[in-house]
Design a protein that fits this description.
single chain; 196 residues; alpha+beta; 3 domains; 5 strands; extended
């Protein structure tokens, strides 16, 4: 988070603004009404643009900007795109709130709290969380190096929300291990990897 200035510094700043010429005041007003909404997320994706998302050609030209986003044109298929094309973030609005939303995710905030802090709807908060989590899967390096520990664990297969169950319905509070003769529960294996 950015550090706020204290009240004395703010009053000094106001005095300096009063001394500006009308042209300088107009420029300042324009700058404050259109803040740089290029988030760090978009800058990170912009740095990773190395091929066309349509034909995977590596020969690209910069092709102007649109909404503070650099556009590119493929020399092979001649289609234009930006850093968000083909990613989970394509078509998402309120780019100025993305960074703050990611900060709330890193703090472990609940969906409702994150939505309230960022000034977005709960449904938007839910959708954004899933999109940002999918994006981190694509951006992270999946290679494991050094000492690697591998382990597996098993969970009961959840059929929550299914209209047709492949097993008898469970009662609350019953443990599958105690009722092996009556109940059968398929297990899902989850492999975990840890590098040291």
């Amino acid at each position: 988070m950015e550090k706020n200035i204290n009240s004395t510094e703010f009053s000094e700043l106001k005095q300096r603004v009063k001394k500006l010429s009308p042209k300088q005041k107009k420029q300042l007003e324009g700058m404050l009404s259109k803040p740089d909404d290029m988030s760090c997320i978009t800058k990170l994706l912009d740095a990773k643009v190395d091929q066309c998302p349509h034909c995977q050609c590596n020969e690209l030209d910069k092709w102007g900007t649109s909404g503070n986003r650099q556009r590119y044109r493929c020399k092979s298929c001649r289609r234009t795109f930006n850093a968000l094309t083909g990613t989970e973030l394509n078509g998402m609005h309120h780019q100025d709130k993305w960074e703050h939303y990611v900060e709330t995710m890193l703090e472990g905030s609940y969906l409702r709290k994150a939505a309230k802090e960022c000034g977005i709807a709960l449904s938007t908060s839910f959708r954004w969380r899933h999109k940002f989590l999918k994006l981190t899967d694509k951006l992270t390096d999946r290679r494991l190096e050094g000492i690697v520990e591998i382990d597996e664990t098993y969970f009961n297969l959840s059929e929550k929300g299914s209209r047709v169950l492949n097993r008898k319905a469970r009662k609350r509070g019953t443990d599958i291990r105690w009722k092996k003769s009556k109940w059968w529960s398929p297990k899902t294996e989850v492999d975990t990897f840890l590098t040291k």
